[in-house]
Amino acid sequence: WTDDAWGNVLNATDPAASPHQYVGRLGYYLDGASGLQLLTQRYYDSGVGRFVSEDPVRDGQLWWGYADASPHGAADPAGER
Q: Which of 9, 33, 35, 78 fits a 20 to 30 Å CA distance from 18?
């Protein structure tokens, strides 16, 4: 499958396979019940491109943002940016 920078599945090459149980090299996991991705400390909603809870570190102005709003050049495997 392929996905966009926000984590949305764009093309599933094997429709019988679940695209996200373990979500790739960054260590994201899919919560099948909610459809949210768990990034170590908090859940991420790829449909809106942001976390569903505030940053536990509360660093900066984007407490619910993902990868400093730059998913093409950054990642946030710990859920802290």
A: 78
- pTM value > 0.85: no
Give the residue among 19, 22, 27, 21 at the shortest CA–CA distance from 3.
Answer: 19
Query: What type of residue sits at position 56?
Result: P
Q: How far apart are CA 7 and CA 3, in angstroms?
A: 6
Q: Is the separation of the CB atoms in 69 and 59 below 8 Å?
A: no
Question: What phi, psi does 57 have (nearest 5°)?
Answer: -80, -25
**CA 31/CA 28 separation, integer angstroms:** 10
What does each C-alpha distance from 2 to 8, 20, 42, 43 come to in angstroms?
9, 11, 23, 21
Question: β-strand 28-30 against 9-11: which pairing, if any?
Answer: unpaired
